[in-house]
Each structure stands twice: as structure tokens, then as C-alpha cells.
């Protein structure tokens, strides 16, 4: 039996603040060798060490699979979310809809690929557009279970007030690309108290 030395590369987790208070872009820790890649999706101690909140336990996890051009969101429920692409690519969009927030009204966009994730705080609207040729799979981890009618805000993803430049043009009448629910969401941010 021969033993070959395998080159192992380790990329540390990197957490980057954004223009929205509490919204973080995160590059997952990755370990690569000749067999492939291990991505560390969540390690509480690493999050706390990077200045992010402790988020466990996750009470619900969902995966959506969306074809090219599909837009989902913008939804800002009363729960923290950790979101990531597990297949394909997406254009992530985040809007601070919290009237008491110092960054109220800010919009952040990010190109999402494997190994990147976004920590979305309570009340910040989360949405995305699938931009890869193959369907993209978007993983959501929630610190609360979603229930119909739960507290939160939804915003129309094509709102002129938000000015989001979706990379793939969206036809407002095509409910295969955007749901009727999302099309009926308010076009304006909630009023500040």
C-alpha cells in the first residue's frame, strides 16, 4: 500500500458587515483535499467569535428549488434566518423594513454561490432570484417555526421605491416567475412610528 501526501487547503470563515444593521455576508469555512470539499455550515463558537449572534437551535429548515429567472420574496418575518445556496446561483436581496432600525430602508444585494451564506436578522426582508442555468437550491434555517399570519413584513419585489435591479428581467404578469402573493405585497416600506 502506498501513501500519497494529499494537499489540504483550509479557507477560514469570514463574516462581513453590510449596510443593514445585523445583516452579515458569510464565507463558510472550507476544507479542500483530493476527495472534495467540506463546508462548515454552522458552528456556534465560530459565529460568536466573529461577533455574530448565537443562533441555535434551528427550529425549521426549508429548501426551495427555483428555475432560472424565478423571484421569491421579499419576506421579513419575526425570526432570524441563515440562508445559503446549495446548488446553482442566486441574486440575494435584503431590505431593512424595521421602522426603528438605524438602517431602515437600506437595500443590500449579493451574488450567492456555494459556500456563501447570509445571516438575516428579524424583520429584514429576504428575497432572491435564481440566476443559474440549472435550478438553484436555496436553504433557509429559521430560529422559529413559520406559521400563517406570523408577525412580519412583506414587500413587492418589483417596487419602484426599492429600486432593485434584478439581473434577469421579470414580467409582472408571469406567475411562473413570481407568485401572486409576492405580487400583491405592499410596494412601500412600513411607516416609521
TrEMBL record:
Residue numbers annotated as active site: 75, 140
Residues annotated as site: Participates in a stacking interaction with the thymidine ring of dTDP-4-oxo-6-deoxyglucose: 146
Family classification: Belongs to the dTDP-4-dehydrorhamnose 3,5-epimerase family.
GO cellular component, one term: cytosol
Pfam families: dTDP_sugar_isom
UniProt cross-references to InterPro entries, sorted A to Z: RmlC-like (IPR000888), RmlC-like_jellyroll (IPR014710), RmlC_Cupin_sf (IPR011051)
Taxonomic classification: Bacteria, Bacillati, Actinomycetota, Actinomycetes, Micromonosporales
Protein name from the UniProt record: dTDP-4-dehydrorhamnose 3,5-epimerase
A GO MF label: dTDP-4-dehydrorhamnose 3,5-epimerase activity
Domain of life according to the entry: Bacteria
GO biological process: dTDP-rhamnose biosynthetic process; polysaccharide biosynthetic process
